[in-house]
Amino acid sequence: MAPKKKGGGKLSRSEVVTIRLDLKLRFAAELVARKQRRTLSSFIEWAIERTVREEVVGPSFSENAGDTAYVAMANIWDVEEPDRFIKFAEQYPELLNFDEERLFKLIKNTPYFERNSKKKSDANTSGALRYSDRFWLKRIRDNWELLNKIIAGEESKEALSELPEHIEIPF
Predict the structure, then answer these.
(1) Which residue among 3, 33, 100, 159 has the highest number of C-beta atoms inside a 10 angstrom radius?
(2) How far apart (Å, rounded) are the C-alpha atoms in residues 135 and 162?
């Protein structure tokens, strides 16, 4: 006999986040939550989603000018963290923190991850190369843990020298 399920499904649709709120802000949030007949956590999630849909993250000087965080999320999101990182780094490089800049530079400077040495343009990028076209994403995925350990100082860059520099592709 199968074990009896405990109440409710176990869908991983959300993540628990601990936040600190000023007492007055928390009180105000509770007032609005009551007005909207929501729990405080439901109200906070709604408020974040609303802000994400309105807040512009693409700088005015880039091809992503005017993109809201919601549009950016739709363009970048991938279930694979390395793929998501490459998309993020190529589309919104000005939003990378220092360690992310170092990680992206490490990937760009490692020939094993480069798809080919001939840089081709994407019609959607006004002649600029899209990194997702430039890189073997599977190779980055396969070495993601190593790359992050190098950035964290837990591994030496020398570990990358064990990767072959060029591999012939059979097609």
Answers:
(1) 33
(2) 18
**How far apart are the C-alpha atoms of 108 and 9, rounded to whole Å?**
42
Beta bridge pairs of residue 56: 68
Q: Based on the structure, what is the number of domains in the chain? A: 2
N- to C-terminal Cα separation, the chain: 52
**Could you tell me the mean pLDDT of each successive run of 10 residues in the chain, 171 residues long?**
55 80 96 96 95 88 82 93 95 94 95 70 47 84 96 92 65 43
pLDDT at residue 167 in the model: 54
Does residue 128 share a domain with residue 90?
yes
Retrieve residue 57's tokens: 């993250």
Residue that is written with structure tokens 């890189």 in the block:
135
What is the rounded (10 degree) CA torsion for 59, 65, 70, 74? Answer: -110
Residue 154 lies in a domain: yes
Q: Would you state the structure tokens that stand for residue 59, as one six-digit string?
A: 């700088």
User: What residues pair up with 68 in beta bridges, in sequence order?
Assistant: 56
Q: Which domain holds residue 44?
A: 24-54
Task: Give the alpha-carbon dihedral of 41, 43, 46, 50, to 10 degrees.
Answer: -130
Structure confidence at residue 166 (pLDDT)? 55
pLDDT at 5: 54
Please tell me the predicted confidence (pLDDT) of residue 125.
Answer: 44
Q: The tokens 């986040």 sit on which residue?
A: 17
pLDDT at 98: 97
